[in-house]
Write a structure and sequence with these properties.
19% strand, eight-stranded mixed sheet, 10 helices, single chain, alpha/beta, 10 strands, Spore Coat Polysaccharide Biosynthesis Protein SpsA, Chain A, two-stranded antiparallel ribbon
């Protein structure tokens, strides 16, 4: 498989852990890779990757940021999955995954996010419009909570405040490379990529919703996490650098 040049924010990749065989060719009009950044996701990664393979994405690429658990071991044994290690950082890992594929488009899927049925066809149909450079799905959670339900409702709109990486961003490769990929930021890399893509063309919000884990909200309280996320977005919009905000976020 050919290797693309390194994108902005990408770091030197390690040797591939495994290439579990050539994936089946896509039946859609456009070839689409699914890229999954991983870090200590041993409990869920095998199921997440198998679902993407079963949905027809080819290749499915798992880019690990140096997990302390068995994430890499589980990922490398799945047919249809290319798994390797990259320097830690979600943006850098996703850039490395994009560089390791040669498809016409990519969808970036968090390890705790499940794509809806028919996701491959939905993305392909959206990108059949030459004016569309990328987009995302609506949001759904695996746990009910009034505040989370509000976030899910607003996710039908594409905006700075309502579109994030756990919505499964997808993009044409040519545009992704032209805008420099993800920035090498410790957070808000998804917000910046959306900004770069919007300057290059039209983004769409697909009518189906992903299902993502609510664990990061429930761990410290849904209200507290929502307020913190909102504050970070406000500060970033006012010009605060992502690296400074990351220290506060952690």
């Amino acid at each position: 498989m050919g290797r693309r040049r390194a994108l902005q924010g990408d770091n030197r990749r390690g040797e591939p852990l495994a290439n579990a065989g050539a994936p089946e060719p896509s039946r859609t009009a456009i070839t689409i890779a699914a890229i999954v950044p991983t870090l200590n996701e041993a409990a869920a990664i095998a199921g997440a990757l198998r679902r993407l393979v079963a949905q027809g994405f080819a290749p499915v690429i798992a880019v690990d940021g140096g997990s302390d658990d068995a994430t890499r071991e589980f990922a490398k044994g799945i047919p249809g999955v290319l798994a390797f290690v990259a320097a830690r950082g979600r943006g850098s890992q996703m850039n490395a995954g994009a560089a390791a594929s040669d498809t016409e488009a990519m969808v970036f899927v968090h390890a705790d996010t499940r794509l809806p049925s028919g996701a491959l066809a939905l993305i392909s149909r959206a990108l059949s419009d030459p004016g569309v450079v990328g987009g995302s799905f609506r949001l759904g959670f695996d746990r009910a909570h009034p505040l989370l339900a509000i976030s899910c409702w607003f996710s039908r709109f594409d905006s700075y405040w309502t579109t994030f990486g756990d919505h499964a961003l997808f993009v044409r490769r040519s545009v992704f490379e032209a805008v420099g990929g993800f920035p090498g930021w410790p957070l808000l890399e998804d917000v910046e990529l959306r900004k770069r893509l919007l300057a290059a063309g039209r983004l769409v919000k697909l009518p189906a919703a992903v299902t993502t884990s609510a664990r990061r909200f429930t761990a410290n309280g849904v209200v507290r996490r929502q307020l913190a996320n909102g504050a970070i977005l406000v500060l970033h919009a006012l010009g605060a650098p992502a690296r400074r905000l990351e220290r506060w976020y952690r």
